[in-house]
Every structure is written in structure tokens, then in C-alpha cells.
Amino acid sequence: MTSGVRPGLFLTVEGVEGVGKTTNMMFIREWLEAVGVPLLCTREPGGTPLAEELRGLLLANRQEPVDPHAELLMIFAARAQHLNRVILPALASGTWVLCDRFTDATYAYQGGGRKLPVAVIEQLENIVQQGRHPDRTLLLDLDVETGLARARNRGGLDRFEQEQRSFFEDVRRAYQQRVKADPERFIVIDASRSLDEVQSQIAAELTKLLADFKSANENGAGQ
Ligand code: Z5A
User: Fold this and answer.
1) Which helix (H) or strand (E) element contains residue 120?
2) What is the CATH number of the domain that holds 114?
3) pTM attached to this predicted model
4) From the alpha carbon of 17, which atom of ligand 1 is closest?
């Protein structure tokens, strides 16, 4: 970097419906802000006015069936806007970015759930992200039945939430394959435990992450 600013960390939170992403995003945000980390919290699909409009189109229930490729292209259109207008500038200025879902969700939902070929997703990922990936990803893992029961208690189901249980089983399996393929990046959290237990594990992982970040920073500063 020419500016001398150390880039922020890019963290994502993933998981199947109802695993507690929203609840734990708030916890992570408060934890990082309390220790003074400059932080931007965002989500996918979404994160800019245009990308939020695309999110609305993606989640809306409609009579017309949505072609899986149309869905995939809208997701990557939203991602291109979000990544280039919001995420990358924030990281470059030293701000950490905490994002509710990112491209792992595309492999899980459009790959695992909709059965689109991984090679097609990879092509779009390469075009849009040009090698930029999250630094670390927290995967909240929970059996599908419990997750759906938690989520459906809230009522008002969007287009994805209306899918059958087998769809979400495929999504969960695809997430597990992502972990196998990139175990260094993923932190898997057992989301079946009580919220207190889940959040203690998250806090312990954040403590390690911050210590690693600081030590890499000190080593880098000395070079
Ligand atoms: N999508 C896609 O297809 N492809 C992509 O590339 C991307 C997204 C990026 C919107 O995602 C949809 O976009 C998503 C996939 C698709 N659709 N689906 N399904 P979203 O992230 O905005 O929406 P979501 O997955 O539907 O999230 P959610 O339903 O809001 O669930 P959550 O955030 O994981 O759960 P929560 O609201 O935090 O918790 C649910 C309830 O459980 C709540 O009452 C909590 O108090 C309770 N809870 C949480 N943790 C616990 C524990 N440990 N014990 C007991 N109860 C708990």
C-alpha cells in the first residue's frame, strides 16, 4: 500500500436460515467497537442503495418463477456494486468490514440449493472479485430443522424462506464443503448451543483474531 495505512480485515458471517446471524452480527459489532476497532457493518445482498434495490427484487415473492441464472446474475450485480463502492474503499482506509453473508452464500444457495454448476459461480466470482475474498468467515452451523423453526417463529416468509427443507439441507452441505476446501479461513461455530455459549466462543475467536492482527501489524511496521 502506498498510503502506509494497514488495510482492515474483511470478516463475513454465514449460515443457513435461522442460525442466528443477525443476532450474532450485533454481538460481534458491539464486541469489536468496544475494543476500538474501526468497523463497517454491512450485508449481502445489499449494502448500497442500488444493491438494496436488487435485494428487494431477489427476496420478493412473485408469481413469475425466477430463473436460477437470473438470480445468480442479480446477486453478483449487487456484489460488484457493494464490493467496489463500499467494501474495498473501507478496507483500504483501515476500517474492518463485517458482512452478513458474501460469496460463500452464493456457493451454498445457488450452487448447493439451486444446483448451478460451481464453475459458473467461479467465473462470476473471478470477474467481480478479481481475487478479493474475505479474510475470515464465521460459519454458524446448525441442523436445518432447528434453524427453520427459529426463523419461522418470526412469520412473513420471503422467496428463499419458502423453499423446502431439502433445499436447506443442500445449502448446509455446500457450506460444509466450503469449509473443507478452505479450513484456514473458516471458523465454525456450533449454533445449536445456548446463545451465551455461542457468544463466548465467538468472543474467544475474536480475541485470537485481534491478537493475530496486532502482531502481524507490529511485525509489518518493523520491516
Ligand atoms: N442469498 C443467496 O441466495 N445468495 C447469496 O449469495 C446471498 C444471499 C448473499 C437473505 O439472507 C437471503 O439471501 C437468504 C439467502 C439469500 N435467504 N435465506 N434463507 P439474510 O441473511 O438476510 O436472511 P436469512 O438467512 O433469512 O437470515 P435470518 O432468517 O434473518 O436468520 P438469522 O439472521 O441467521 O437468525 P436470527 O434472526 O439471528 O435468529 C433467528 C431466531 O433465533 C431469533 O429469534 C433469535 O433470537 C434466535 N436465536 C439465535 N441464536 C440462538 C441460540 N443460540 N439459541 C436459541 N435461539 C437463538
Assistant:
1) helix 118-129
2) 3.40.50.300
3) 0.96
4) 25
